[in-house]
Amino acid sequence: MINKILPDLSKRAIGLDLLRALAILMVLFYHGWIFVSGFFPKAGMLFFLGYWGVELFFVLSGFLIGGILIEKVLNTNSFGLNTIIDFWKRRWIRTIPIYLIALLLHFISINYIVGFPTSFDFRYLFFAQNLVHAHPSFFPEAWSLSVEEWFYLSLPLTVLIAFIFPTKNKEKRLLVAFLALLLLFTYFRWSQSDGTFDINSWDKNIRKVVAFRLDALLYGVIAAWFFITKKSFAITYRKYLLLLGAILVLIAYFVFYKKFCAGFNNVFFSSLSSLGFALTLFYFKTWQGPKNKSILNAITFLSVISYSLYLIHYTFLFRVLNNFIIARTLMNASVLLFVYLLFAIVLASLFHYYFEKPFLKLKEKMKA
Q1: Which end of the chain has less neighbouring CB within 10 Å, N or C?
Q2: What is the pLDDT of residue 358?
Q3: Do 305 and 348 form a contact (C-beta atoms < 8 A)?
Q4: Which tens digits make up the pLDDT trace of 304-339?
Q5: Quick one: which of 27, 75, 33 has its CA closest to 53?
Q6: In this structure, how many other beta carbons lie within 10 angstroms of the beta carbon of residue 255?
Q7: What is d(CA 115, CA 270) in angstroms, rounded to the nearest whole number?
Q8: C-alpha distances in angstroms, 344 versus 128, 214, 347, 349?
Q9: Which residues, including other chains, have CB under 8 Å from residue 196's CB and lie 6 or more apart?
């Protein structure tokens, strides 16, 4: 099965695959940790594994999608509505069909396996369930998928509007448009800050609301702009930028955890985290990867199934296991955690192979 899933490694950016693999492992381990968390009451800070995993996904998406759009603008004479429609077709054939399959599976599992009656919320079909308000309890991990889908919709339109009036300096026009959009969404988040901070309210009403989070992906877009237009600088100083990025992420975490400033926690914590992750991308974009083929295959495998793994690991698997199995000892809880992680990867592999991969092939045909 693994050999059937692995793509042509020569076409992969192994460094970005590593980041994607780390991101999904952080999210997966954070949710799975709940099985053993009762035995480690002071391990609440592991919340940041899940947080960092999702933020890393956001910045990576911005970097990759932004890079595609930037290349199109800079390398073509025209960037119009037809180009955008083609972009949307290829993105949505990649993400939406298997999302809808997962949505159906989750609805069935919650209603007929877990036995918790839930009416279907049609807002999920349009990623509108958390557009300007808190995300519902059903399929809770879908909040980040909504952020990404609205980003795929809004970024190309922003680029199109930016070039209503022709310009000789396309690079500068793009950067101004990206920065303006970043400031706009940061302002939206600032407008919600009332000078107080409560982590549960922040997580529910700011962190997981689309209108306040699109700037996270824009840091990746701006990183892509720098890599494409200032490639020599980005490569030359990639190690220093990696170190700076790691420091910024840790500083953001320290200030947030100590609750020094409510305004920082509500508004700029996510900004500083996203900026830190964006600065690490230059190093990993050019990283050649390990020489050990088994490690290389493992990284690529986890990266390839990461979207399927994100879709099925929690609502479909975790909630079912957590509903029927209660571990009363640390040993039993540890075994349950291991089984959960193993099942999640196996099920995601099957989901990817039978549902996601056919749509990936269709996307490649559309590209050709």
Answers
A1: C
A2: 87
A3: yes
A4: 999 999 999 998 888 888 777 777 888 888 898 899
A5: 27
A6: 16
A7: 37
A8: 27, 28, 5, 8
A9: 262
How buried is residue 237: exposed, middle or buried, by Cβ count under 10 Å (0-12/13-18/19+)?
middle
Report yes or no: 320 and 109 within 8 Å, Cβ to Cβ.
yes
- Give 108-163 pLDDT, tens digit per residue: 988 888 778 888 899 999 999 999 999 998 999 999 999 999 999 999 999 999 88
The whole-angstrom separation of Cα 187 and Cα 336 is 43
Cα separation, 183 vs 140, in Å, equals 27
Q: What is the pTM of this model?
A: 0.93
- Residue 194: predicted pLDDT: 82
Contact by Cβ (8 Å): 282, 238: yes
For residue 145, the surrounding DSSP H or E stretch is: helix 142-162
pLDDT per residue as tens digits for the range 249-307 = 999 999 998 888 999 999 999 999 999 999 999 999 999 888 888 999 999 999 999 99
Give me the count of residues in the chain. Answer: 368
Distance CA 244, CA 229 (A): 21
What is the 3 state secondary structure string of 271-283? Answer: HHHHHHHHHHHHH
